[in-house]
Design a protein that fits this description.
single chain, alpha/beta, 10 strands
Length: 326
């Protein structure tokens, strides 16, 4: 009879980090059928094959992954030389040591597949890091909050604990209710990044590679299918050391116009690298075509961040004129 592996964690009030840590481990072949043992009794935990979030010990060689001891200050930066400096919780520790294999299992790929490597930091940044920060009491920003945020995943996990005025609730059932919720959201995030985020990045990569076919300046890109592109653009420009920076993106709006959209200074900025020509601001249709000398114009927003033309050639001409006027 095969040995039943045991994942140890603490009993009592549970938090999002150890719930996620347990879920992630059980996606791996060796822990797929593991029993989750919840206890603070060290004689019980010492019998477990792997222990998370309890025991005051971080020792990967012994599969002990706690972060509460005063001597622990590990981050993805210190452990894996990744550019993340948030102190790890038990979730982050498990992700640090098992994340590539975990993603490989969820996506039916090898752990060293390039897709897994590309998604590894993104899954951490958009899911696990928030849980690490929350469990370690690290605020996401400086200064007091302007309003209450009560719908985060850690907040919802907290509300699934046994409540003070109903102590007869089954703590184990509460834990596994949280386990199912956290696990479903984690898998959904991984699948979304794989099925939605990654294809969009591929579109942006292709557009950047072909940018000089659009215009010799290399400052205009074209999308044959519109997709979320701005954050990908900034990341790829930095990764590939793109110079000069891209100023405009052209894409069809799926209705009647080819759009020409200015690239902002940063993903969250309203300021643009090069706005559309100031003489065109707020103009539409024939008035815009007359002012620009470009047939088929539809509009230029008063903020000069976006405009439209009935043809691709017209939108490209709008971008070129704006570049020349900078």
């Amino acid at each position: 009879m095969a040995k039943v592996m045991k994942i140890g964690t603490h009993n009592g009030a549970f938090h999002c980090d150890e719930v996620l840590a347990c879920f992630m481990l059980r996606q791996l072949p060796e822990y797929q059928h593991a029993e989750i043992v919840r206890s603070r009794d060290m004689s019980v935990l010492n019998e477990c094959d792997i222990v998370v979030d309890v025991g005051a010990e971080y020792d990967p060689a012994r599969h002990r992954y706690d972060h509460h001891q005063k001597t622990f200050s590990g981050t993805l930066q210190s452990i894996l030389s990744r550019p993340f400096q948030t102190k790890l919780s038990s979730a982050g520790l498990v992700y640090a040591h098992f994340g590539h294999r975990l993603l490989g299992c969820l996506l039916n790929k090898e752990a060293d597949d390039p897709v897994v490597e590309l998604l590894y930091p993104r899954v951490y940044q958009t899911f696990v890091e928030e849980i690490d920060g929350n469990d370690n009491g690290i605020s996401p920003a400086e200064g007091p909050a302007r309003y209450a945020v009560t719908s985060t995943l850690p907040s919802r996990v907290k509300r699934l604990n046994v409540v003070w005025n109903n102590p007869s609730m089954d703590e184990t059932k509460c834990f596994f209710k949280a386990y199912d919720m956290v696990g479903a959201e984690f898998v959904d995030r991984v699948q979304d990044l794989h099925n939605v985020w990654l294809p969009a990045r591929s579109f942006v990569e292709a557009a950047i590679k072909g940018r000089k076919e659009i215009d010799p300046s290399g400052e205009i890109i074209r999308f044959d299918q519109h997709c979320p592109w701005q954050k990908h653009l900034f990341e790829i420009e930095e990764e590939w050391s793109i110079t000069p920076q891209i100023k405009y993106a052209l894409f069809h709006d799926g209705k009647a116009l080819w759009r020409v959209q200015g690239v902002p200074l940063s993903p969250d900025s309203f300021d643009l690298r090069v706005p559309l020509k100031k003489e065109w601001a707020g103009l539409r249709d024939e008035a815009l075509s007359t002012a620009s000398g470009i047939p088929g114009c539809g509009f230029v927003h008063a903020g000069r961040f976006i405009g439209g033309n009935k043809t691709y050639e017209g939108a490209l001409a709008m971008a070129k004129q704006s570049l020349a006027a900078q």
